[in-house]
Write a sequence for this structure.
């Protein structure tokens, strides 16, 4: 039920591995903002995880505080589980270097080496731990019952190359795992006989479902850097950076279409979706996250995740101070970070 005077928003949440903890921080602050109410979420990869966890906590009377508690519980649980089973851990030198890097982690180096030689599922590290972990940490029956918030979760159909958007009422652990399935790390997730990879190839986040079905103010949480100040120098960094660029192409394309054409093409149905009246807003972690090592996207150590969370809270706080009064009136999204990365980095 909408409270009088409250502005309803849609959220588009990007993926980005452990950088999803930045998105957790943004959500944590937005959920405390009583002037805003979330009506719909499109989340990809780590953004899909955050969307499902939020709905789990929000459902059946849990509300804002239930959602906040669920998000913290999930990210702490993810970190605890990874500390017990993941071979990708910071080395003593990584800890000394700081910044969340895994550059000298033996587990990370092995993962990158095998990714260049063996395709999943041949690699011994390709077993996807996300699906059983998601099933353990998220109550999907509660997610499906969260009628207050619509969810749209994209994944990429490997055979057709098209996107499939999973809806809240059908969501289970397989669909969230599919949206977060990095092709060079994990074996594909099979749903109804079709194999899927990460949804970031077709929408990061997918905006067309929000344009078609959600509140007109779309707040995009960007935790996948578009710009980086330096060049990748190792094969693993080159691979990570090319994926980062590829995962941002769909985002740049959709934002450009909305801003310049007033319409965009639905990634699933290939229909034209008109975007008249849509107002775009951006809460971006690009400035801070582009300074972090590419390997840090695989760092699930609790102090690092908490650091990213706090960055997200602070970034959301700044956005609210500057723009919350503009919601419902005008778009506040600065096109420079999206369309002109060279100006953003001063190169």
């Amino acid at each position: 039920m909408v409270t009088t005077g409250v502005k309803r928003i849609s959220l588009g949440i990007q993926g980005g591995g452990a950088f999803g903890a930045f998105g957790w921080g943004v959500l944590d602050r937005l959920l405390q903002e009583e002037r805003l109410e979330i009506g719909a979420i499109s989340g990809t990869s780590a953004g899909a995880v955050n969307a499902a966890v939020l709905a789990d906590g929000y459902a059946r009377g849990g509300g804002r505080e239930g959602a906040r508690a669920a998000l913290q519980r999930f990210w702490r649980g993810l970190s605890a589980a990874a500390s017990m089973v993941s071979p990708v851990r910071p080395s003593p030198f990584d800890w000394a270097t700081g910044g969340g890097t895994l550059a000298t982690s033996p587990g990370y180096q092995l993962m990158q080496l095998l990714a260049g030689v063996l395709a999943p599922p041949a690699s011994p590290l390709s077993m996807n731990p996300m699906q059983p972990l998601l099933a353990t940490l998220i109550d999907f029956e509660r997610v499906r019952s969260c009628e207050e918030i619509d969810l749209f979760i994209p994944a990429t159909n490997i055979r057709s190359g098209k996107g499939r958007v999973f809806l809240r009422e059908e969501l289970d652990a397989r669909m969230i795992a599919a949206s977060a399935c990095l092709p060079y790390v994990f074996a594909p997730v099979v749903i109804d006989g079709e194999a899927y990879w990460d949804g970031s190839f077709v929408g990061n986040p997918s905006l067309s479902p929000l344009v078609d079905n959600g509140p007109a103010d779309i707040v995009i949480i960007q935790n996948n850097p578009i710009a980086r100040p330096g060049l990748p120098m190792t094969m693993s960094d080159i691979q990570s950076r090319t994926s980062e660029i590829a995962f941002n192409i769909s985002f740049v394309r959709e934002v450009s279409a909305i801003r310049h054409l007033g319409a965009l093409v639905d990634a699933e149905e290939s229909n034209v979706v008109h975007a008249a009246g849509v107002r775009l807003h951006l809460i971006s972690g690009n400035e801070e996250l582009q300074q972090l090592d590419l390997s840090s996207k695989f760092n699930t150590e609790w102090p690092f995740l908490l650091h990213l969370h706090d960055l997200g809270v602070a970034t959301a706080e700044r956005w609210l101070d500057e723009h919350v009064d503009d919601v419902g009136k005008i778009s506040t999204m600065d096109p420079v970070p999206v369309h002109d990365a060279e100006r953003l980095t001063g190169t």
Residues 12-345 form a domain with the Cytosolic phospholipase A2 catalytic domain fold (CATH 3.40.1090). The two ends are 48 Å apart (CA to CA). The first helix runs from residue 20 to 32.
